[in-house]
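## retry 2 of 3
previous attempt timed out at serialization; input unchanged, resubmitting
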Amino acid sequence: MEDKRNIQIIEWEHLDKKKFYVFGVAMTMMIRVSVYPFTLIRTRLQVQKGKSLYHGTFDAFIKILRADGVTGLYRGFLVNTFTLISGQCYVTTYELTRKFVADYSQSNTIKSLVAGGSASLVAQSITVPIDVVSQHLMMQRKGERMGRFQVRGSPDGRGVVAFGQTKDIIRQILRADGLRGFYRGYVASLLTYIPNSAVWWPFYHFYAEQLSYLCPKECPHIVFQAVSGPLAAATASILTNPMDVIRTRVQVEGKSSITLTFRQLIAEEGPWGLMKGLSARIISATPSTIVIVVGYESLKKLSLRPELVDSRHW
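## retry succeeded, writing output
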């Protein structure tokens, strides 16, 4: 009889692709709505000099809420929703790469490592221009300027509507940097997210496997998968946060050199400057990763081809 502790991984060829994409878009949208405020807070914490504006994640949350209301926590959100496209490209690349690597190795660690890195490469090529625009929108606040560009108010003194702000930021980026400006920090993004993704998947499967032996046989797989996701996210965040801080500064402050940005950060704030925004990153990653893992594993189960449903044990 099959040991229920053995976690069965649903591969690409087992899926009903139509269900997979329809359910996937809806799931991704719900996740983005729930974690976007912490993404905005993390970005502001990483860009600020020292603790000139905010003293931490909770302090930033309260100050933004007081100054701009709930909408202030969602600056740049509409633009950021276009990353739904890159999200679908990510999961497709990940699953197809796993299938390809399986012809050469049956090691789940190797398949996860290669597929995670490859998926991130494809996704970041689509995401970076969207990130550049949305990050500049995140930096818009009443009072002191945080980023390179400032959205201009309307002649009557009122604010500019959401997509009016987006157009204004896009024009300023084009005037300052040309089309290359939309890929500012592209290399830094690759150096951040390819390792992050490549590390996350193997650690996720590793933690899930270890927890499966610690938990009772009757424990549903989805429980320790939900726990292993945040553990993997925290591990990956700690390892890649230094590069994430540098990436954010390159994109928002318009710097052209990763090396010079690194040296300036160390000179101004010391080694601890490389850990800025880590708590906000982990806080945002924990609920989002639980939702992603539970959602993604459930999504794959819902998308399983009908003839395979009875052969699986969860």
